[in-house]
Each structure stands twice: as structure tokens, then as C-alpha cells.
Amino acid sequence: MNRKGDKSLIVGLDIGTSKVVALVGEYSPGNPIEVIGIGSHESRGLRRGVVVDIESTVQSIQRAIEEAELMAGCEIRSVYASISGSHIQCRNSQGIAPIRDGEVSFADLDRVLDAAKAVAIPADQKILHAIPRDYVLDDSQEGIRNPVGMTGVRLEVHAHLVVCAQSAAANVSKCVQRCGLQVDDLILGVLASANAVLTSDERELGVVLVDIGAGTTDIAVFVQGAIAHSASLGIAGDKVTEDIAHMLRTPTPEAEQIKVRYACALAQMATAEESIQVPSVGDRPPRRMPRHSLAQAVQARYEEIFEMVQAELRRSGFEQHVRAGMVLTGGAAKMEGVVELAEEMLQMPVRVGIPQHVTGLGEVVGNPVHATGVGLLLMGSQIENPRRPVISTGRAGNVLNRFKNWFRGEF
Fold first, then answer.
1. What is the DSSP letter of 144?
2. What global pTM score does this model have?
3. Orientation of helix 291-316 relative to helix 338-346, angle to 10°
4. How confident is the model at residue 6 (pLDDT cuts 50, 70, 90)?
5. C-alpha distances in angstroms, 280 versus 62, 248, 284, 337?
6. Quick one: CA torsion of 119, 220, 368, 310, rounded to 10 degrees?
């Protein structure tokens, strides 16, 4: 637990393919979290969201943490870390349990969720999250959001399970622990982003969140207020940079700068007259080229990303249910023309999601790049202070710990 005076500190560590970002939030229950520190360092130890070089990742984490500590004026001991990558899979599962005392208690919710987690998963995978979507009490047809206190005999839960590769999760934890930090929890990146950028109306209506980072494009579909599908695609902003480097025959760092500065995702936005200067490889002189042809190459790659997103949405079976359309977030969502291109291709309303529900540093709060980091802070604070009325059980069991475990989906 990180503390500063009477307020609790919470730290989100977004371990991304292009950079590691540590955010420090200060909160007291009932108030919004205030972001008081940020540290960021480029990361070279990940490929497509998965750790491929421990040493290098440890260094990036260490730098980001040190920077955040300096800014926030605190010592960081534990973090909520993000995980993503195409090893992430999801499935919807059901669990049934008898109700002990004729009235649904939190303990019954725990038990019925445990029943939903009792599914056969391969030995090299583990359940990262088990999230209740809705409940059925006896034979009521309607999905019940919160059955606590209701009378019945048998409780059924519809849950969303997120499954990940054990090794991938272990390697992320190992990197964090090597820095002398505890992992409070590992949280699916796109689930965190969803907490930061989606409105409750969008979740109710049905919405697809697409978080386009450098190494992965992560998708979460929400229907009737609850997560219904999640996936991670191994194609994202890095591929756009590679395309530019290839097309312009220019080194990758320069290609990245050109992308950030001049690229747009819709070719018709670039006029024929505009041209850009391109540094060459070696000591050859720089060249000029029309911005329009850069935009065409970028548009082609973004089209491919959105085609894959659409295919994933179809595969999920929820395509007809996302009436609120799509929310784009992550670093690659900042490029001009992306929203227009997505709307044109997917025929649905699209907006860029920026982190909500927190106050503090402006560079963080209004920036889609920090959606995951802010989401980690929000989810961490909910895990530490569950918004659940404490019920007096006859035997004073350690209710709080049960709540925490219920939320974390621990075994």
C-alpha cells in the first residue's frame, strides 16, 4: 500500500510496446482520483504487447517509476500493472449455486462466480478476470444486475472470463518484481481503458472500445452495461511506422516522427500541393515528397486495422448490439482523419475517448494515450474500496478480504 499523509496513493503501470508509463494517483474514498505524478520511458523489451526481453523491460519500468516518484514526491512500493497481447482470449460462462439462507448474500455471489470459473482451461493458461455480467434468480427471465438481498432458491450468473497465457502474465509480474515492487493486480489493458473513457450510457446502449497502441489493437465490446467480448490483435501503430520507413526508405525513429508530425489516415485530407522533407539513410541528402502519398500508405494500413476490428466484431456475434458505435483510444487514435475513416468503413458513430473521472495533470487527463494508465488507477481504487455495502454476517468473517478476492477473481 502506498500512502502519503491521510490519503491513499495508487499507482498504475501501463507496460506498453513502445513505452512504459507510471501514473501516481492520490485519492480519499468518495473523491475523484487526482493524478499527481507521471513517469514515462521508451520500452524496447516488448513485442506486440508481450515481454520478450526481461532486462530491457525492467530498466524501462525502473526509469518510469523513478520519474513518477520524483514528480509525486513519494516512494512507490506496489503497482497495478496492465497486460495485453494476442494470447488473451475470452469466453462467456455460466455458474449455478444454491442460495444458502433463502436471501442472496455477497457470499452467494462469490460462490456462483466460482462455479462459473470452474471451466476446463489448458494448463498453460489462467483466468485473469471473471466478471459477472448479470444474474438469474430461480426462473426469472430478466437479467438481474444486483441480486443481493433478493429472495430465492437458486442463483445463476452469466460471467465473462478473460484467459491469458500463464507465461506472459508471469513475465510481466517478474519484470515488476525485479524493480523491487509488488504487483497489486494484473489488469487487462483494454478493460482498464474502458473504465477510463466509456460513459455508462454507451455501455448500456452497446459500444465497442478499440484501443490502438503501438504493438496491439485491443477490443472490448460492452452490451447492456457489461463486457461481452474482448480480444487483442497483433497489428497496430508500429506497423504504420514500418510502412512509412519502408516506403520512404528512412530509419524507423525518423519514420515515427514523420508519422506523428505529418501523417493523416484519410488521403483526401492531404492536398496535392503539400510536401514533406524526408531524412535519408546514411549521409545522403534529405528528399521531399508529397504528403498525399504518405497519407495513402497510412490510410491503407488503418483500413486493414479497421477491417480486422470489424471481423472480430462479427465473430463476437454482438455487431448488431453496438448501437452507441465505436470509441477509439490509445496513441494511434490521435492521428487526424482516423475517426472519419472509421466512420466511413464501419458505418457507425465513432469518437475519440479521453480519460474521464480523474483530475490533476492536464497532460494525462485529456490524452487518449493515457487511457489505460488512468483506467488502472480507477480499477485499483475500486478493488481497494469496493462500493459495496458491508453486510453484517452472523459470524464476523473477514468481509473486506472476501470482497477484494471476489473482485480480483482469485481462487
1. B
2. 0.87
3. 50
4. low
5. 34, 8, 6, 27
6. 140
